[in-house]
């Protein structure tokens, strides 16, 4: 079966859902952010600081194209859909699940998170960024799962029911 690619804004639960989905499907999990850190031997905040977001996006594209296309759950970075080449690749190579989360819920989940370079950049309007990315997430999505007020078990059940329908 085609791999499942989880897309969504930071804080939408991609990594948590991927881990829980793994316990249900017994598939491999790949996390593009972790793969970037392993491959380039730098953590993401350091890549952003030392090389910039544009280079990070190039790294992200490179890693996306290395993910397994079958029987794998891939948690992607929130900005993976920024590049057209990635959106095309996702549409062709996997089943894409968009974990749609409201701005209010994202703020609640990330209020104490200091590990995300974009989230912690005070000069960046994150709510506007979410609004700008929304059409791109919708463009690649085979299925949309609304995550507000749901736990990982509920989200996982919805994903399973959609892909098995």
Topology:
Layout: E1 4-7, H1 14-25, E2 28-31, H2 32-40, H3 44-51, H4 53-64, E3 72-75, H5 84-93, E4 95-100, H6 103-110, H7 126-140, E5 143-146, H8 152-163
Parallel strand pairs: 1-3, 1-4, 2-3, 4-5
Helix pairs in contact: 1-8, 2-4, 3-4
Give structural notes:
The protein is α/β, with parallel strands linked by helices. The chain has a single domain (4-163), classed as Rossmann fold (3-Layer(aba) Sandwich), CATH 3.40.50. 52% of the residues lie in helices and 13% in strands. The protein has helices at residues 14-25, 32-40, 44-51, 53-64, 84-93, 103-110, 126-140, 152-163; strands at 4-7, 28-31, 72-75, 95-100, 143-146. The chain has a 5-stranded parallel β-sheet with strand order 2-3-1-4-5, with helices on both faces. Helix 1 packs across helix 8, helix 2 packs across helix 4 (53-64) and helix 3 (44-51) crosses helix 4 (53-64). The two termini are 14 Å apart.
End-to-end separation in angstroms reads: 14 Å
State the helical fraction: 40-55%
Number of domains: 1
Specify the CATH architecture.
3-Layer(aba) Sandwich
CATH superfamily: P-loop containing nucleotide triphosphate hydrolases
Question: What would the principal axes of the Cα set say about the shape?
Answer: globular
CATH topology (fold) name: Rossmann fold
Question: Order of helices and strands, N to C?
Answer: EHEHHHEHEHHEH
Quote the beta fraction: 5-15%
Total E-strand runs: 5
CATH class: Alpha Beta
Instruction: Strand order, main sheet: write it out.
Output: 2-3-1-4-5
Uncertain regions spanning at least 5 consecutive residues: none
Mean pLDDT, to the nearest integer, reads: 92
Quickly count the helices. 8
Structural Rg:
15 Å
Biggest sheet details: 5 strands, parallel
Look at the helices and sheets and give the structural class: alpha/beta
């Amino acid at each position: 079966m085609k791999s499942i690619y989880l897309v969504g804004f930071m804080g939408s639960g991609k990594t948590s859902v991927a881990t829980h989905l793994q316990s249900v499907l017994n598939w491999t999990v790949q996390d593009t952010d972790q793969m970037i850190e392993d491959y380039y031997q730098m953590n993401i905040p350091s890549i952003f600081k030392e090389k910039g977001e544009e280079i990070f996006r190039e790294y992200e594209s490179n890693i996306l194209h290395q993910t397994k296309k079958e029987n794998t759950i891939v948690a992607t970075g929130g900005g993976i859909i920024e590049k057209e080449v990635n959106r095309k690749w996702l549409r062709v190579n996997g089943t894409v699940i968009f974990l749609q989360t409201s701005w209010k819920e994202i703020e609640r989940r990330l209020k104490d998170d200091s590990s995300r370079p974009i989230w912690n950049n005070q000069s960046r309007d994150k709510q506007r960024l979410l609004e700008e990315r929304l059409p791109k997430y919708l463009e690649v999505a085979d299925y949309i799962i609304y995550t507000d007020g749901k736990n990982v078990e509920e989200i996982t059940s919805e994903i399973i029911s959609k892909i098995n329908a």
